[in-house]
Amino acid sequence: MSAHRDRAVGRSIARLEDPRLLRGEGNFVADQNPTGTLHAHFVRGPIAHGNLVNVNCERAIALPGVHAVLTVSDLAQIGAIPLKVGWNHPDQQITETELLASDRVRWVGQAIAVVLADSLYIAEDAGELVELELEPLPAITSASAAIDPDATKLYPDWPDNVLAEYTAGDVANPGLFAEAAITLHEQFSIQRLAASPLEGRAALAVAQPGSDRVTAWISTQAAHHASEVIAEACGWPTSRLRVITPDVGGGFGLKEAVFAEDVITCLLAGHFGRPVKWIEDRRENLIGSAHCRQCEWDIELAADQDGRILALRGDLLYDMGGEPTGVGIGFARVAAEMLGGPYRIESVEVKARGVVTNKTPAGAYRGYGGPEAAFAIERLIDLLALRLNLPPHEVRRRNFVQPDQFPYSSASGMVYDSGNYEEALDLALARSDFAGFERRREEAQKLGLLRGIGMASFVKPSGLTNSRIMAGAGTDHGNSETVTIRMTADGAATVLSGVSSQGQGHETILAQVCADVLGLDPEREISVLLGDSQMTPYSSAGAINSRVAIIAGAAARLAAEELRAKLQLIAAGFMDVAPTAVVLADSQAVAGGKSVPIAQLAKAALTGFELPDGVEPGLEQSATYDPPNGTFPYGTHVAEIEIEPGSGAIEIVRYIAVNDSGILLNPAIVNGQLIGAIAQGIGGALLEEIAYDSNGQIQTASLMDYLLPTACEIPRIEIEHLCTPAPHIPGGVKGVGESGILAPAPAIANALANALGPVEAQNHLPFSPPVVWEMIRAADGIG
Amino acid sequence: MTLSTITIDINDQAYRAEVEPRRLLSDFIREDAGLTGTHVGCEHGVCGACTVQLDGAPVRSCLMLAIQAEGRSVRTVEGLSDSPEFHPLQKAFLDAHGLQCGYCTPGFLMSLEPYMRDADEISEQGIREAIAGNICRCTGYQSIVDAVQIAANEMRPQEDAER
Ligand code: FES
Ligand code: FES
């Protein structure tokens, strides 16, 4: 027999997805053009706030090649109902949103009408001919303006502009603040961002001839959830709609929610009996999909004279834009719950309020509340260190949850699973040569550059939590995953899972997990089918919250173990040994000195010809997994920066990232996730900002204005891993899709403070060159 | 709108179609020629996903009209390797995990191939500058830079490598 194959888990095997993508043979939604396709184009509102008096579609409909132009009342006639918000909180003002604007527009880019035409060129021409009659209203362009008692109300029948609120933790003990040796009171703000997957949103729905069924290819992170939400809004049974996720060009949370455009594409394909295709362009993506992150913190911290944090109390004002997306105020809630970060803080009380403004709705984005919280708490820790004249790592050390305190219940009710936070900190300090920094600062000074070093520690709740706990929190979906594995007569396995992949390599990692259990070659003997609401097993939530490797990975492992048990039983019969003596490896069942090819066992099981007594024919197993709790990957990152004082430009000269992600299934994929997330975090710290003028006109509707980082702004990232397996997850995985994005902004902010001395502006993202230039002047006491 | 019949040579094959003057080259490639490996990420010339080679030089096919390419020679990702084997750059992207979602990848490959052909010396800084006009939202670029370095070693003339 040839040399033994290495275990697949833990190896950076080549991704199964890559050959097709590298050849240009991927299958993205836009790549399909069925004959007879109608192309959808959405007419979007040009003003931030106003009454929609009339929509005149006559001229548009008259254009040759135009099939239909519809408004929200037309959709209602076809049977559509408003879109349900998926995560709702008590006393939330609205729990559903209209598919198209009816009597009021609330942000620039809100969809008002949909055109269907023979080509996208004609559909866009027709869109220009739709006449909108609007009566402008004053625009509310910030969350703080929205809560002014005199502010114009976006929804006249609400008492104010607050959509919903949630308080994390318990009422903080006021005595702790009154008697504390040290108190800090600080404000922080985070700018508006756009998740910006390189492929925008996209949907293609095809009516199935001879039935009322519709098959839709949608660029979404969650096929099953999309099928349920879309079918409901169409007024259809879920069984009428099959949603397939083909290759998806990035999601980053944006594609977690179901959007009205997805619903309308499916609805109209069913109604007109023709394929309907909607491909979002970049401008639409920047104005009409969802934004994220924009919020304002007001926080008080109480500590003793040794720097032990006693209490946190704060307000989080989250700018929700004109209406909620599918996740409601979920990210604001998570931000409030995670304000305590990796620290042991007895008393925490954070009130999060989601308020409506005349801007694009806020949706999910990688990190989901985590980065908002990490920015605030990690700046606070550095400010506390400054007040105490202690090194910033020392204050972190004194407050970390300790290894013997896991599982640790935080004041806001999260249960952190495992790890050693101090070890991550120490490794980051060592790798970054933190101790030797002053010498590097002096070297930079000689060149006329300002050099700074900053750190941030974090913990990121991942993999959601148990489904029953989620039900209590008000979500419309649970957290279980089912994976099915079936074998073919040649001994190869097909793994089926309802999750989709937006670049995370889910095909590859699920193959790796199953390969080891079944003794198969992950690259040649396993194929993986993902994301089909009717053909793959049920996925409750899809590829969100870094959950696929954790939850679907565990389900795949359990299914593979059940299949292995059956193969062992058959092999035991073949070799006349005990089933427990059979090991599956190198595509063989081995026991003692004997072996049988797995292909032979598979053939026996599928034909039913040579099975031992009591073994049923067939070779297919499913397993379902719902975790008892989520996981909490964590780490510490260190950023070292140089500032060019003449321009305020920041260069990140070194970036060290120490992470504990539990067991790594495929280290190259893990590193790719971390580095990609860190790059997005750096973009959010230095470059990216969705801006509006005072009338609510968006100023950043192209990639010339919304600046995504390029290869010239992102430094080489140095990654180090610790490994504390998640104790409660089969496979020990902690999830890695998001954890990298929490630390970059606060680490860079802290590095700026280190380079320039503390100024207020370091509490407000982003740090563009003009902002930094002003900071330098403020730090010098100029201007 | 008046239509004109144009022929564009793509990957050494002639594609002929009746097009409006305003038809973008990217749409011609993807829809008229059916070569969907070329992707569109912004349609305004910033992201580089639509990069193809026109007479050997990288161009953004979303910024050109199809009629401007009439009679000229276009190369897309589908034509990067003329055998069933990968081009060394594709192989290196596979080995170095130079892609995640893969949406940007064809544009990177088509930008990088001429750079590697023409550059006197392949350096990290040089690679980063060569791809400064291509946006990847997934990888943070590091694995792409690594892939190019691997490919450069692979493609170095034999005598050079042995020195
Ligand atoms: S699609 Fe052409 S540059 Fe973005
Ligand atoms: S791999 Fe997704 S944009 Fe580059």
Which helices and strands, and how do they pair?
The complex is a heterodimer of chains A (783) and B (163).
Chain A: H1 18-22, E1 38-44, E2 50-56, H2 58-62, E3 66-70, H3 72-78, E4 83-84, E5 96-97, E6 104-105, E7 111-117, H4 120-129, E8 131-136, H5 143-146, E9 162-169, H6 174-179, E10 182-190, E11 202-207, E12 214-218, H7 223-234, E13 241-244, H8 260-272, E14 276-279, H9 282-288, E15 295-303, E16 309-319, H10 330-337, E17 347-355, H11 370-388, H12 392-399, E18 408-409, E19 415-416, H13 421-431, H14 437-446, E20 450-459, H15 467-473, E21 481-487, E22 493-497, H16 506-518, E23 526-530, H17 548-575, E24 583-585, E25 588-591, E26 594-597, H18 598-607, E27 620-625, E28 634-644, E29 649-660, H19 667-686, E30 717-722, H20 744-756, H21 769-779
Parallel strand pairs in A: 1-14, 12-13, 16-17, 22-23, 29-30
Antiparallel strand pairs in A: 1-7, 2-6, 2-8, 3-7, 4-5, 9-17, 10-15, 11-12, 11-14, 15-16, 18-19, 20-28, 21-22, 21-27, 24-25, 25-26, 28-29
Helix pairs in contact in A: 7-8, 10-11, 11-12, 11-20, 16-17, 17-18, 19-20
Chain B: E1 4-10, E2 13-19, H1 25-32, E3 51-54, E4 57-60, E5 73-75, H2 88-95, H3 105-118, H4 124-130, H5 142-155, H6 158-162
Parallel strand pairs in B: 1-5
Antiparallel strand pairs in B: 1-2, 3-4, 3-5
Bound molecules: FE2/S2 (inorganic) cluster (FES) (2 copies).
Features of the shown structure:
A: alpha+beta; Aldehyde Oxidoreductase, domain 3; Aldehyde Oxidoreductase, domain 4; 5-stranded mixed sheet; 21 helices; B: 163 residues; alpha+beta; Ubiquitin-like (UB roll); DNA polymerase, domain 1; 6 helices; 34% helix; globular; binds FE2/S2 (inorganic) cluster
